[in-house]
């Protein structure tokens, strides 16, 4: 990815997951993570809107239907939110967003408590067999994710955090990976046209409703996955376990088939049956 004239390329550090991996070597230096690792078009277009290709415009990925569409690209570039950290340039994502709805105090308190614990995602297993099964899953998913995340350490850290947060929220890990593929194409700094952020495209209002009010934290990997998984769990509980309706609510398109069908199709790539 080219940098703006007169400005060196920027790199992002990997200290996003709130703790080292269990098997990371002590004293290992932070790895540089460039934004170009997770390229690829988004898998899902909002209802009524065609899929759009991504192109580069002075270091920012913007949506474009053709190379000649210069004015619209400039307008989109100017509309990208300014982040608290000026060196983090968000990538655009096209997705719907959760809708802010009335919430009783007990539900708000439960959600706030669910996201408050920031312990690092280090899995604990009851047996050696369970640990070996997890390592087989991790190896298989790492191979499948290689095209999106080339760096091994970054890929393992991401998968371990997804596994931990999805299990913690009592969600199917393959469904969460399918949702991330549809929502952000596995891009940490993705920003949708409605302002949803990060891997799971969490709307900023959630940080005010159940967090500390800082939407910038939604670009932190574990924070984004923690919010996204608990929000999806909340919607599943509201819809009494109806995955179709809960996924629609997550996307702000409750009752419409496009988004749930897209997530279900993407989920099939991440389903794993242990051969052991």
Automatic annotation (TrEMBL):
Domain Transglycosylase SLT: 166-266
SUPFAM superfamilies: Lysozyme-like (SSF53955)
Region feature Disordered, mapped onto this chain: 1-50
Similarity-based family: Belongs to the transglycosylase Slt family.
Protein name, as recorded: Soluble lytic murein transglycosylase-like protein
PANTHER family attached to this UniProt entry: SOLUBLE LYTIC MUREIN TRANSGLYCOSYLASE, SOLUBLE LYTIC MUREIN TRANSGLYCOSYLASE-RELATED
Organism taxonomic ancestry: Bacteria, Pseudomonadati, Pseudomonadota, Betaproteobacteria, Burkholderiales
InterPro entries membership: Lysozyme-like_dom_sf, Transglycosylase_SLT_dom_1
């Amino acid at each position: 990815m080219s940098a703006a004239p007169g400005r060196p390329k920027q790199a992002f550090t990997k200290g996003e997951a709130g703790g080292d991996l269990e098997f990371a070597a002590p004293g290992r230096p932070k790895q540089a993570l460039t934004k170009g690792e997770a390229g690829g078009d988004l898998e899902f277009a909002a209802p009524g809107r065609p899929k759009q290709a991504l192109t580069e415009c002075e270091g920012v990925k913007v949506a474009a239907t053709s190379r000649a569409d210069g004015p619209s690209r400039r307008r989109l570039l100017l509309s990208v939110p300014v982040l608290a950290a000026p060196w983090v340039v968000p990538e655009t994502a096209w997705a719907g967003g959760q809708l802010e709805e009335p919430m009783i105090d007990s539900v708000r308190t439960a959600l706030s408590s669910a996201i408050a614990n920031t312990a690092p995602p280090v899995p604990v297993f009851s047996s050696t067999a369970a640990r070996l099964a997890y390592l087989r899953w991790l190896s298989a998913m790492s191979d499948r994710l290689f095209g999106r995340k080339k760096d091994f350490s970054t890929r393992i850290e991401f998968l371990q955090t997804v596994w931990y947060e999805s299990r913690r929220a009592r969600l199917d890990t393959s469904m969460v990976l399918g949702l991330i593929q549809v929502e952000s194409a596995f891009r940490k700094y993705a920003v949708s046209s409605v302002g949803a952020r990060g891997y799971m495209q969490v709307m900023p209002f959630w940080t005010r409703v159940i967090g500390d009010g800082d939407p910038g934290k939604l670009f932190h990997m574990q924070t984004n996955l923690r919010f996204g998984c608990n929000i999806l769990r909340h919607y599943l509980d509201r819809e009494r376990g109806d995955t179709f309706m809960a996924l629609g609510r997550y996307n702000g398109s409750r009752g419409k088939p496009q988004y749930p069908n897209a997530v279900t199709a993407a989920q099939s790539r991440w389903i794993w049956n242990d051969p052991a």
